[in-house]
Prior knowledge:
Elements: H1 2-26, E1 29-38, E2 45-50, E3 65-68, E4 72-79, E5 83-89, E6 99-105, E7 111-115, E8 123-124, H2 127-140, H3 153-158, H4 163-174, H5 179-192, H6 196-202, H7 207-210, H8 213-224, E9 237-239, E10 245-247, E11 255-261, H9 266-282, E12 287-293, H10 302-310, E13 315-318, H11 323-327, E14 335-340, E15 345-348, H12 352-362
Parallel strand pairs: 1-7, 11-12, 12-13
Antiparallel strand pairs: 1-4, 2-3, 2-5, 5-6, 7-8, 9-10, 11-14, 14-15
Helix pairs in contact: 4-5, 4-6, 5-8, 9-12
Amino acid sequence: MKFKAFLLVFAQVALLSIVFHRAWAQTPARVSIQGEVAGKSTGEDSILLHRAQIDAKYFGNSFAAAKIENGKFLLKTELPYPKMYMTVFASDRGMLVWRHGRYFIDQTTTVMRVDTMMDECGYVNGQTSEEFRTRYIPFMHKAEAFNCKEASLDALIMDKATAYDTLLYEYVSKYPDSYVALWGLIERFSLFGHSNLRAKTLLRFSEKIKKEKPWLLLENDLRAIGIKENGKFPQFPVQTEQLTNQRLVLPKAKYTLVDFWFSRCKPCLDAFPTLKRLYSTYHPKGFEIISVSTDRTKDLSLWPKRIQEHGLPWAQYLDENAVESTKLLIRSFPSTFLLNERGEIVKRDLTLPELEAFLEANLKSSK
């Protein structure tokens, strides 16, 4: 009986230990970071840790800001898990939304250095940041070392091509416990939405990472998003040129290009001459285009003017203030989707030369 009683007490203590450990693991650690600003004198200013285009839910809605005095600042925040931030200064308002350069902060971070002249040369200490600097960045650049003054990780991350996604898959396959790579995948999804490769990469993480909140959020978002590679393109609410409400209508065609743009987007406007030429050549062979403007209410008078100026002959729709586009994670412009005759997404964000080559290969001239 005494032995049974001992076992019972031991089991209760073990259970309490497990419960306590879990509660401790989920309790955010309070972190104080001593920071400095290099590159130029900031004068009276303040700094904010910025989430860029990533949804606030991935951060637990906890951010940090601090006044800069004599080039120094003290940031205090809570971290239940490692997080990736960008930065922005109060003096950047009206010029920059956020600065380039990523800062990985975890419970071991105590020091931060922000370079105002070379954004990607910023520095924080800590285990996660150490991995980012010494393993992740060199891996992505296929180099033994990375010189922040000569090369840009940001350019690779922001590129719509799949090169970065392929490297990310390879990195996670090699380092499945990496929080740096998890944030890399979260950022790519936030920028460019779903792809089969991104979904495949998510599953390569370790069981340990798969229990963490950011992984679970990303898994849910990838599953629930309305636009999926090889999936059917959604027919969401829009307005016509006459500003009447309806759902997006997909034309009957062998291939349809859905083009998201807005009236003050120079790259969008620059693409129209080539799109008009391709439309003229391939429309008789089964090619269609529909454009969806995401203009703000204040710019609605400009929308029909742009259509007329460029003589756009295909169907035009309006997603006022990008309400539906934002839900679909369309945040860079122009964004394009090439659909087949069943309305399924064949390609996303083809360059104009890639689009022309595809049409030439798939819509043969009829003689």
